[in-house]
Amino acid sequence: MAVGDLSLDTTTRQFRLAEAPLALIPRENAVLEYLILKAGRTVTKSALSGSIFGLGAETDPSAIEIYVHRSRKKIDGAAVEIAILRGLG
Fold it and tell me: Is 76 within the bounds of a domain?
């Protein structure tokens, strides 16, 4: 799967950015994997959190923001971006 120059090998679950391997920690990988699967659609924070931490898991609400922020920094300058829609997702 690919969005812009960010691609996901669905067999290995590894990301590449402009054909170079993208170094991600497991939670950042989970964030990008969920978002690439939902590309073009608004994703709520609760849906993303449920996907990453599991449904019903007790997590700090700011944790998902931290992982999204870190993921955004790692793809900065690429032909793809994670847009934040305040109040929506």
Answer: yes
